[in-house]
User: Fold this.
Amino acid sequence: MTPNEINLLPLISYFDECHEGDLLSFTKWLDKAIYMFHYLPADTFSEVERQNVCHVLMELKEAVLKIKVEQSNFQGV
Assistant:
């Protein structure tokens, strides 16, 4: 593995173990986390921190959905 490569095996193992390989299940949980994040007390995080965390979660969700679409296209589903 070169320094620029990232080992995603732990993440893949997480999907397999916790979501039985169902990436859509994972994205649903991300949606719930984003939704619940907005109901934390206002003084828990600054507005900028709240926006940044939600943005990161949304980007992660989009990346997972992209993987799901590419996987479906590859498998001919």
Residues 23-75 form one domain. The longest helix spans residues 47-75. DSSP finds three helices and no strands in the chain.
